[in-house]
Every structure is written in C-alpha cells, then in structure tokens.
Specification:
alpha+beta, N-terminal domain of MutM-like DNA repair proteins, Helicase, Ruva Protein, domain 3, 2 domains, four-stranded antiparallel sheet, 5 helices
C-alpha cells in the first residue's frame, strides 16, 4: 500500500492539472470501489473548482469551491494518470511503462484545464468520498490520526509523549497511525535502521521517567525526516503498483539501505553485520541485529 512519499508524489503530479481548475464532468464507471460511491457523489463534484489539493497522512484531499472536500485513498493498487488533449510521450522512458489495461479506469475527472484525471484501480481497495469541510473533524476515516511526520509540530518531544508507557515494540508504535500519520512498513524499517534502533525495542524507551525525550527519540525523528524527504525527491518507492501521474515508477527502492535486503551485508561502516528478515506483527521487518540496538 502506498505510504506518505508515494501519496505526496501523486499530489504534486495532480496539482498542475487540478488546482485552480473546474471539474467540468465527473465519471464513476461503477457503483463502488472499496466502498459504494455516495448517491450524490457526481452531483457534488461537477461544476466545482478545486481551490487546493492537499494531503493528510495517506489521503489526498481536494478542496472544492462549494466548501466540500473530495477525500481520495489509493488503496493497494490505485494510481492516477493525467491525460491532455495534446499529450506528448511521457518523460522518463527508461522506466517500465504503465499497464495498458483500461478496464480498471473507474473514475475520470474532466478538468477545465484541458486535462483528464483518471483513477485506475485493479484491486478496487481505493476509495473516494465527498465530505463537508466543517465535518472533517468528525469523519471516521480521519478521526484520531496522529501528527504529520513532516509537520513543524512533529519533534522528539511529541514522539516521546506519544510513546510514553507504551508496552508495544517501537516498530509497532510507529506503524500506529494514531502515533504518527502516514508511515508504513518500508519507511519505518528504513528510519529505524538509520537511527540504529532495534524494531524490537520498547516504544517507551523514547521517553524518560519524567516524560522527556531521550537521545533515541531525537535520532529517530531526524531519520524519519531524512528518509521521507529523500523518498519524496525520488518519486516514492515502486515495489509493485505505485506509479507517478506521468506513468513513471518511483525509484527510491534503489536507495533502500535495509528494506528487502535480507542476506546482504549491513551498509553501516565497520559494522560487519548482515541484514535479516523476521515477521513482526504480521509484517516483514528488515534489520541488522549488530548495529540496531
């Protein structure tokens, strides 16, 4: 499932085509994706100008002139592409081409910018929903989400408070969207490795008995910031389904230091360890037991 860098990459790709443009026509080519479309889904979109295109955790959020917000989630296999009347060949031909199966083009937005924004989702785990802006704080899909890891308020003190007295593993805490929003398995593994912290370490060790952040918390926040920003610059990670709006793959997977590198030598200087894989809370964890403590 796409994580924060992949969703942010998609947002930036959609922004020129959607932001400031009006949805002239909207098509929902089936009755549902993961959830049924609202009965007034199309009616609340057509004729509305997208005044802003943002992101919250792993959700895309299009602000509409009506005061509604179009909430969009990519699910397991969802991707957007942007088509223009005078479409040129997509840049980056060295990447693998996007699949040509159009039977899974389930939602299309025809924009006044001249672009058509197409949502393709073979597995149909994605979803879209129109919500009134003043009702967002009560929306079950968003309620309870933790802070944005790239937001100004996310720092060592905040992370330490969120993890204080937790008896779960550090990895499980970071995957909890109530602790920090948008992180997934790939980037948690990478951040823990870069901060030399074991995924098995108790989350509570990020906080002192007085509730103050430990050095571990500071190192981890720095690593989270670094790995997310690097991944966004690389267009995200394309492990299976992720594509940018141009059809290109992200290429951060070529910069993985630990994820999916089981059996390879640890990249930490003078470590000499080997990356191992084990299953933790039903997910694959990749780590070096020698330098991650």
């Amino acid at each position: 499932m796409p994580e924060l860098p992949e969703v942010e990459t998609v947002r930036r790709g959609l922004q020129p085509a959607m932001e400031g443009s009006t949805i002239l026509k909207a098509e929902a080519r089936r009755k549902d994706l993961r959830f049924p479309f609202q009965k007034d889904f199309i009616a609340r979109l057509e004729g509305q100008t997208v005044t802003g295109l943002g992101r919250r955790a792993k959700y895309l959020m299009a602000d509409l002139g009506s005061g509604d917000v179009l909430l969009m989630h990519l699910g397991m296999s969802g991707s957007f592409r942007v088509l223009h009347d005078s479409a040129a060949a997509a840049p980056g031909r060295f990447h693998h081409p996007r699949g040509e199966e159009r039977a899974h083009d389930h939602v299309v937005f025809h924009m006044s910018s001249g672009a058509s924004v197409v949502f393709n989702d073979p597995r149909r785990f994605g979803y879209m929903k129109v919500i009134a802006r003043n009702a967002l704080e009560h929306e079950p899909l968003l309620k309870g989400l933790g802070p944005e890891p790239l937001g100004n308020e996310f720092d060592a003190a905040m992370l330490a408070r969120a993890c204080a007295n937790k008896k779960t593993s550090l990895k499980a805490a970071l995957l909890d969207q109530r602790v920090v929003a948008g992180l997934g398995n790939i980037y948690v593994c990478e951040a823990l490795y870069r901060s030399h912290l074991s995924p098995r370490r108790l989350a509570a060790t990020l906080s002192t008995k007085k509730g103050e952040p430990t050095d571990h918390a500071g190192r981890l926040v720095t690593s989270i910031h670094a790995v997310l920003n690097q991944a966004i610059r690389a267009g995200g990670s394309s492990i299976s389904d992720h594509r940018q709006t141009s059809g290109e793959l992200g290429y951060f997977q070529h910069a993985f230091t630990v994820y999916d590198r089981a059996g390879e030598k640890c990249q930490t200087a003078r470590c000499g360890g080997v990356v191992r894989r084990f299953v933790q809370n039903g997910r694959s964890t990749f780590w070096c037991a020698k330098c991650q403590k």
